[in-house]
């Protein structure tokens, strides 16, 4: 069957209701069954197929821009998502996400698996607030549902070609092919190549932040009868990029002089042996003094490093979903398997010295199984679900740190001739490379970790309509998590073998639940109030030889309203919430390793609002805002750069928890004999937020703050028959913000990686 372009049909689905001044119904699966968004008592941001296509939603950066109280960071290949200030802040397999991610109902565990399938999507749902009943472990902050397009029994073909600045070329293709009346296939492929990087490295004469991405997905649908549906899917992703550029932002002149956990302060100290020059002067390094802002000049795209940073992600997986729908009953089985690896080499000191270079390899294989039984009883007044969930994962991480130039810097520091013995007691009296048995003239540090995780859970939720207006809901989930770990930490610094094949295991058990009440004011307005809880499993740090960190828990209280007003032309949803957040897992960078420790607690309060308004024919306004007030309770941590006595972080805001977030979009469509034109402009704003628990409460921590920023986009789309053409400019302000900023004790410095600059581009789409 011939059809208009996917983009045209998608845009018309939002434009036509505007002409009618009436918004369409939005269906979600937030409660593990289909329901109307306006009748679902959860704060949800929904991105439809049309929104994804129009706004080029390619990753969680884009999702974050359109979601109140959401911040996304990318750190060394890991996706770090925070919702309402609750998230993950560590880039190794020790930490698990606080925002659970599901693709077609399959849970993804490790956050380097969080690449968004960014083509051939039906819908994205962002659920804010703890989802401990239906989504379970690691959903203290919320959950993200990504729903791909299913095979169709009508032939379909969609092809899109995109060209943008920095020599980036992208091809997307997807289509459905019916084989019989009961079997259909769907395939999609993405080839994305960027030949010019966003930043230049004059040391090596190369550019950085570029690379290739290739992904493909194949699915098959079998419907032997009307009540049974079997869907199989498989996907593959390969990403090879010279990315995650770490730039040195600051060094600490007041850092401790020499210690095993901090040897970096001497880089900017005057050295009598060098005639009063510092080592930074000797090697031509320029550091801003710690305590100044970590602002980034987008016009200065230079980055100084003596080694390129590269990473390769490879991931493949498969899933099988079996659904049966009977009279008042439904059953679903979701089986998933995923295997992924992350291999990277990075210059973690952010300079043209080999002070801290990292080779890291991480991999994970996971198997998941979920069973759901749903039903309706008592004349459909009671809707219920019972289910069981199983998760099994084997993961491995190997880290090797090169610290070669510490030998040179110490020789210069003490005024020694090259190769001379170091002073007695110096912790850099390097021994042999004990892990391999080979001698090493340079300092190094290795650590490795193998971890197996197993989780079993059972859950239920009931929703009962007491009367025409009043409904109550409640749910319970019980989870058992078990982890086993094998850790080794070796090197020729301060002790050689610190531990070898250290084995530990822990088991955690937790109950989570939800209790709520809803009141229907009318057919187009409802109020809700609820209490819900979330739980995130504990774990083990790879850079330590013993011990574990505890689970974190969250109890939330929330009230909200969902309304359709002004003749169904205005949709306005609001929510207010309060969190009691206990045993928070926070990131600390100590002794070369990013590790997790438990803070005491935090109090979080906030409000959110989202709206869609179609006031006249062809005109649509949409957007929202979030306000967040968060404070840590009493907890003591040492600054990794200054290595001072522990300080109390009480009163500081949570990490990546801006006080204000906002987004506003305006879209106007007009039809002509030449075709349909759609003009869209949108802008998003995030106020200042912190990358560290100290929140500028120590002298050097201002460098770990991200200033407020605004980014705006402009798009013009022309649609005619099977074709559409879009011209766009993204990040009009050329505002570049920090995606990850870290204090590194080893070098006594602050390093960071940053978002992409302004880009212009165009896209041609064909469908039939």
TrEMBL record:
<dbReference type="InterPro" id="IPR000531">
    <property type="entry name" value="Beta-barrel_TonB"/>
</dbReference>
<dbReference type="Pfam" id="PF07715">
    <property type="entry name" value="Plug"/>
</dbReference>
<keyword id="KW-1134">Transmembrane beta strand</keyword>
<dbReference type="Pfam" id="PF00593">
    <property type="entry name" value="TonB_dep_Rec_b-barrel"/>
</dbReference>
<dbReference type="InterPro" id="IPR039426">
    <property type="entry name" value="TonB-dep_rcpt-like"/>
</dbReference>
<keyword id="KW-0472">Membrane</keyword>
<keyword id="KW-0998">Cell outer membrane</keyword>
<keyword id="KW-0812">Transmembrane</keyword>
<keyword id="KW-0798">TonB box</keyword>
<keyword id="KW-0406">Ion transport</keyword>
<dbReference type="InterPro" id="IPR036942">
    <property type="entry name" value="Beta-barrel_TonB_sf"/>
</dbReference>
<dbReference type="GO" id="GO:0006826">
    <property type="term" value="P:iron ion transport"/>
</dbReference>
<dbReference type="GO" id="GO:0009279">
    <property type="term" value="C:cell outer membrane"/>
</dbReference>
<keyword id="KW-0675">Receptor</keyword>
<feature type="domain" description="TonB-dependent receptor-like beta-barrel">
    <location>
        <begin position="287"/>
        <end position="732"/>
    </location>
</feature>
<feature type="domain" description="TonB-dependent receptor plug">
    <location>
        <begin position="37"/>
        <end position="143"/>
    </location>
</feature>
<protein>
    <submittedName>
        <fullName>TonB-dependent receptor</fullName>
    </submittedName>
</protein>
<keyword id="KW-0813">Transport</keyword>
<dbReference type="InterPro" id="IPR012910">
    <property type="entry name" value="Plug_dom"/>
</dbReference>
<comment type="similarity">
    <text>Belongs to the TonB-dependent receptor family.</text>
</comment>
<feature type="signal peptide">
    <location>
        <begin position="1"/>
        <end position="20"/>
    </location>
</feature>
<keyword id="KW-0410">Iron transport</keyword>
<keyword id="KW-0732">Signal</keyword>
<keyword id="KW-0408">Iron</keyword>
